[in-house]
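Translate sequence into structure tokens.
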Amino acid sequence: MSDAVTAFAPASIGNLAVGFDMLGLAIAGVGDRVSAKKTDSPGISLAEVCGLNGKPHPDLSTDPAHNTASIAARALWDEHGGDGGIELRIFKGIPLQSGMGGSAASAVAAAVAVNALLDSPLPVEKIIPYALEGEKYASGGLHSDNVAPSLMGGMILCPQVLAPEIIQLTAPDGVSAVVVHPELQVNSAQSRRGLAKNYSMEQWLSQQGYLAGFIAACASNDIALIGKTLRDVIIEPQRAAAVSCFDAVKSAAENGGALGVSLSGSGPTIFALCETDAAEKLAASMQQACRSEGIDCQSWISPMNAPGAYLEK
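Result follows.
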């Protein structure tokens, strides 16, 4: 058994428009990496946190008490580890405060790496509670809609009332996610605190109907029904104003044939679902709309069955 491993965990779309705090989707092509190695010294240490350029990340702490990766690693190691400790190195590939599940991905990658160093590694689904300890530090709540898809891949239903159980949903054929990240930041914890606490029965029933319809549409591969049900009538209206390019990008996506478009998590990242053949053209239209608002951006196209976290060779 190796004494050092590196794990990759993908970014994710939290909420997926219709399922606030209970529905998430893994995103292929972008994620965080965490390297872990056993040490003789007890506890969890954090040697470095680097950006994509390989240089120390200017905005993230190397204090193990204040990083989602080390918090998740400590939770797992304290309960299942042996003698000695773990040294971590984090390589961030997900933009900060992007609404793409960056804090969750770091926590997941750390938990997956540490799990691989245990004498008796846990089944993958048993890692979720430990990754959630890290995510809780960043977001202020125990919701799995970023952690679960980042760990397991694909589309996950994970309502808190069923925790720790999660449900892997059927991904429709021929549908992809287009993800556009404007060069903006939105603090997820602050955004959550700003949400209204009371909603009308009409809003509640509408959103329940969209969620149920969307899940049924994906399971039956009903593309038209996906287009009718990918709607957020409660959370998106409260958060959209914080993303200055949202209206322009959403309009471009809808005009370009998207099945639906909304914020990824709390934003500023914006996602659209579309038929796969239209994804590249739609991504270009959404990027153009974002840049027309004076905001640079980057984008990814991901299948709806993107893989979850894994150990790198």
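Note: The mean pLDDT is 95.
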